[in-house]
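Re-running DNA mismatch repair protein msh3 to confirm reproducibility after the cluster update. Everything else is unchanged from the original entry.
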Amino acid sequence: MSQQLLSRFFSKKETNVKNEAVAEDACQSTPTSKLSTFAFTGTSRANDNSNPKSRKRPASIEPTPNKPKKAKGLTDFEQQVLDLKVNHLDKLLFIQSGYRYKIFGSDAVTASRILNIKLVNGKISFDFKNPSKDDHLYSTFAYASIPIERLLVHVRRLIVKGYKVGVVDQVETKAIRDNSKSKGKVFDRHLSNVYSAGTFINDEDLEKNVNGKSILFLNESSDDTLSVVSINVYITEIAYDQFKDDFTRINLESRLHHLEPIEIIAVGDISSKTERCIKNFLTNVREII
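Result of re-run:
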């Protein structure tokens, strides 16, 4: 694959981002239709004759997190939960609190139903402008919880159902906090892992030498040229190809059956012909983003 192709395939896609309120139906952890990509933009050292201490670090490839205004009546921890969820609407979030992982709001309702764990009633919607039917009866979020040691067991069950799971770990302990200057604030928590059908590695499969399934990245040009990159995290195998296809998408179909991806990520817009081909392959695909 040429350098020109790689540049075009992974170049930044222009998107229009609007600061809108979080809709309730967006909190149901359904995959989005596009994948936003970000180009690495740094300062060239060859053209930088300034003092090394004054050089700026390259811009982050991660988008700037949204920080909604603090909602009335929320504790610091609940506000932290809301901030995390607003920035990860496409995932079910497991948030560490002490020796347990907790799931909140609409995520808790979904997890409780699939995992058959107890749901503590509370607010369901993360969008206070569009609350759920009974949200006015409660002052805190609904939640469910699991022991830390059972995390991967439950994550696997959710992935089988087609969900993407984000794990938020508590990066501070009480001992560290007692010796810090910010004793009154909530513990720091950050998203540490994201599990999906194509990235969850099962230890049992590794012991049985199972090859596992791959993630397929797909990009389509206006002249019916398709570029695909397949990544298998089980055996660290990468395959890529670029080809022209006709209206039946027979070439794409043959590659899908050969690679057997369990997760497909469309980079940019795809045509109705390509979308139809992927939908026909959905029996072997867990998720389309």
